[in-house]
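new request in #modeling-help
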Amino acid sequence: MDSRERILTTLNHREPDRIPFDLGSTQVTGIHVVAYQRLREYLGLPRVAPTLCDTIQQLALPDDDIVEKLGVDVRGLFPLNSHNWNVVGKDIGEYWEYVDEWGVVHHRPKPDGLYYSMVRSPLADAPVTQDDLRAHRFPNTGDPARIAGLRELARKYRAQGRAVMIKGVLAGVFEMAQRVRGMENILMDMASNQALAGAFFDKMVELKLAFWEMALPRLGDVVDVVSEADDYGTQVSQLISPRMFRQLIKPRLATLFARIHQLAPNAKLFFHSCGNVRPLLPDFIEIGVDILNPVHVTATGMEPHALKRDFGKDIVFWGGGVDTQDILPHGTPQQVKDDVRRNIDALAPGGGFVFNPVHNIQADVPPENVIALWDALREP
Amino acid sequence: MALLDDLRQGVIDGNAPGTTSLVKQALSEGTPAEKILNDGLISAMAEVGRLFEAGEYFVPEMLVAARAMKGGLELLRPALAAANVQAIGKVVIGTVQGDLHDIGKNLVAIMLEGAGFEIVDLGSDVSPQKFVDAVAAHKPQLVGMSALLTTTMPKMKTTLEALNAAGVRGNVKVMIGGAPVTEKYAMDIGADFYAPDASSAATRAKAAVQGR
């Protein structure tokens, strides 16, 4: 069984020869460049100048040698977007400042901050009207330059026997609206000016469709998974009520997901939301989500045995392999192994599981713990 | 009193224009500012906190209620100052060094303000020295620190050490929170208490300054 067959088997809810492993195929299943360099050194791999697939989060694109060594089963395509296209920080004293194609301002602490964080949104000044939104200049998400070279890359990965997935060029419908309008503003709009909030969400759907309608006719036959992402969960609950999700967001996601399935009928749809999204899982399944990421196993309501029991036949779990908020950065290698075994026992039986930590492996994760994770995964 | 009940309900419903006009009306009718504050605004935010903890309110409802409360409070401030009404305590709050996330910290600040505290908000990416200087300058009863990242959490410990080294740690209680932060972590680094969300942060802060 090659890597692609392994992934396709599990995505079709059958148990493959071994648990499939993802490292770095998306912006939410990756590894920070600092942890990546330390891991390479630990594995005795030669020093490289790493390519970043996401400069904002400083995520490394895994090189072929480490993919081979660790048996990574899936590779990602990273279309050009505000996270990896001419991300150049300007020195403004205390920070590196980067203004992205959306007009969002990001700061990274000098001299060696671990990430860029958003500090200003272009339409944050209340009051904003639907006319302001219409007049605002948005990036051309349908520009084919964004996917230049990706078809050849996908074919190369396929020829290596690996599954291929592709991400989009803007954050989730809810999250991208937060970036453009400001998080607190859009949340207040949702409670007090739903027409305006809805207009923002419609705009994000339109921009997403412009990308997928350009990209999937060109790439749909060489990708196995299409990924979309948003964030509704918190550590204990949800940012917005399930009622508000169903009213303002779900119908728009349904339109988007239906079109993606139509454009790439053979690909599975991967959807990311951190936190406790258990109350929303039936909704995700209903509107065509095939794969849930990250399976935030330490959030309230996300206990993996119960999730597998209640939703395992309808959705694939991609992630949730080890807690990334405490055990992976702070635990001993033995604690990492124990946590990995617990989560595998819950999520892997019967297939429908791709192994990855709960989120990106951050700069504070020791290489010993990454290898402990990998050893536990590979144990018979 | 029907007017204050309406005012309270206006805040709970997130009705900002209604809240400001009711505050104006209450003041013009001679209602003591302290009574408007306690029975109108603070009482409303306590109910908002209760609804949040009960899972009936989420962040949007909390934010619009806070916006209404803040509008009312701005109108009320001159009358509160004239009547020499004191806040129940002062809190210096910020997101720790290297961390630029401020939504969680802002929510905590809003709920603390709604519970009757005076807030000194230092913003995000706040160095240990800035916390120390703010404690010296503002003499708060409480210091609140937030971190969203595992990689910035250790700065909470560094900041506590800086407060110790400056000899001001004993003057304040320190509360911490943020996605990766836990009760155990708070105890491990010697903070006074932890809160899992904005509403419980306000409840615990109030208990801390009232010695309960």
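bot summary: The CA atoms of residues 122 and 130 of chain B lie 8 Å apart.
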